[in-house]
Design a protein that fits this description.
Helix 1 crosses helix 8 and helix 5 crosses helix 6 (273-289). The protein has 8 helices and 17 strands. The protein has one domain (5-376): 3-Layer(aba) Sandwich (Peroxisomal Thiolase, Chain A, domain 1), CATH 3.40.47. By secondary structure, the chain is α/β, with parallel strands linked by helices. Strands 1, 2, 5, 6, 7, 8, 9, 10, 11, 13, 14, 16 and 17 form a 13-stranded mixed β-sheet that branches. GO terms for molecular function: 3-oxoacyl-[acyl-carrier-protein] synthase activity. This is Ketosynthase family 3 (KS3) domain-containing protein. Residues 2-376 form the Ketosynthase family 3 (KS3) domain.
């Protein structure tokens, strides 16, 4: 497979409301949308505002997950200059599982656990593939879509997903004691766990020709079944990042000069004591091997929460915007900036010394790990 693949359009719904640009503004302002849940039985979460004008009004016959996915998809398509998904496209859905058949004895909450089911909104010719790799699902889906475009299988690949609060996923985080009693504070020494968030995301990928986009997916790698049953080990994460860098080196023009060196890293960091440290340790090894220091590293999960299978979408929007603007966003909840080996963890926005490459990490239970390399380019080059 040869050739680069560009991000032609991005769409996002978060606890800040609809819109990728709105999310980026709030993230850079250091604001958090994490609040005590309006639903009984839930703690501090990031809920999509019920009155947000950018999200269609609730339909009791449809899952909210579908509304968030559709809203994000419309924004991504518009960014790509498309009014609808082309009939020769491929759609990849990041999800816990494909939608389950409707049954009278099926619990109502199951509709928000599986899916979303977009088939009725797509041309009959468009295949829909579901990818489930825990919290790395959307990143796995993006790299699958990238390969579909690079191979010439399709000229347009769409990755979409959504997450809403539901009993199944919330209780699974609760039972392993991963949830924080306060808003999540990734990288902060006083962090106490994760906060779940709601939302949806979508990305349109096309060949990097003409005016396809400023951001190119230039490298990536995935790994499955790490050494530990619940969280990846340092060696697994470092190995995945190194493989992503090697993949970027192998694709011209990124591999035409010096080895790929990230100017910014958007971390998976969720706010757990173990997970954040393991990621920083792995990242420290990789950056040190490259001879780098003070590389800005941040996470969005203290701002909008952890969207589980769809958590990669806010990360992708943030990393893409960081390259376009030359600005590293803060990690909301981190009380003061600090160094962690060769990583610089900003508590406020920080200028990027370079804006060529960004790394985006996405990790999941069971050893599902993914790392993606993005390159900023002059439009049309």
């Amino acid at each position: 497979m040869t050739g680069e693949v560009a991000i032609a359009g991005l769409g996002l719904v978060t606890a800040f409301g609809a819109g990728a640009s709105r999310y980026w503004r709030e993230l850079c302002a250091g604001r958090s949308a994490l609040r005590p849940a309006t639903r009984p039985g839930y703690g501090v979460v990031g809920q999509v505002p019920g009155d947000d004008p950018g999200v269609p009004a609730a339909d009791p016959d449809e899952p909210r997950k579908l509304r968030y996915a559709e809203t994000a998809l419309r924004e991504a398509l518009a960014g790509a200059g498309l009014s609808a998904v082309p009939p020769d496209a491929v759609v990849v859905v990041a999800s816990q599982a494909p939608p389950a058949p409707e049954r009278a004895d099926r619990p109502a909450g199951m509709r928000e656990f599986t899916g979303p089911d977009l088939t009725a909104r797509l041309p009959p010719s468009v295949p829909v593939w579901y990818v489930s790799h825990a919290c790395a699902s959307a990143a796995f889906g993006l790299l699958l879509a990238r390969d579909l475009v690079r191979s010439g299988h399709t000229g347009t690949a769409v990755v979409v997903g959504a997450h809403v609060l539901n009993e199944y996923e919330y209780r699974s985080m609760e039972v392993v004691k991963a949830l924080s009693p306060e808003p999540a504070r990734p990288f902060d020494p006083a962090r106490a766990g994760i906060s779940l968030g709601e939302g949806g995301g979508a990305v349109v990928l096309q060949p990097a020709t003409g005016a396809a986009g400023e951001i190119v997916v230039v490298g990536g790698a995935t790994r499955v079944a790490g050494a530990l049953p619940a969280a990846a080990a340092t060696a697994d994460l470092a190995g995945c990042m190194r493989a992503a860098l090697a993949d970027a080196d192998a694709v011209p023009p990124a591999g035409a000069g010096e080895p790929a060196r990230p100017d910014y890293v958007h971390a998976h960091a969720t706010g757990t004591a173990q997970g954040d440290d393991v990621e920083l340790d792995a990242l420290g090894e990789v950056l040190a091997d490259l001879g780098l220091a003070d590389v800005p590293v941040s996470s969005h999960k203290g701002a909008v929460g952890h969207l589980l299978h769809s958590s990669f979408f806010p990360a992708l929007v943030a990393a893409s915007a960081a390259l376009r603007t030359g600005t590293a966003p803060p990690t909301v909840g981190l009380r003061r900036s600090r160094r962690a080996g060769p990583s610089w963890l900003p508590a406020t926005t920080a200028p990027l010394a370079g804006r060529r490459l960004a790394m985006v990490n996405s990790f999941g239970f069971g050893g599902s790990t993914a790392s993606v390399l993005l390159r900023h380019r002059t439009r049309g080059v």
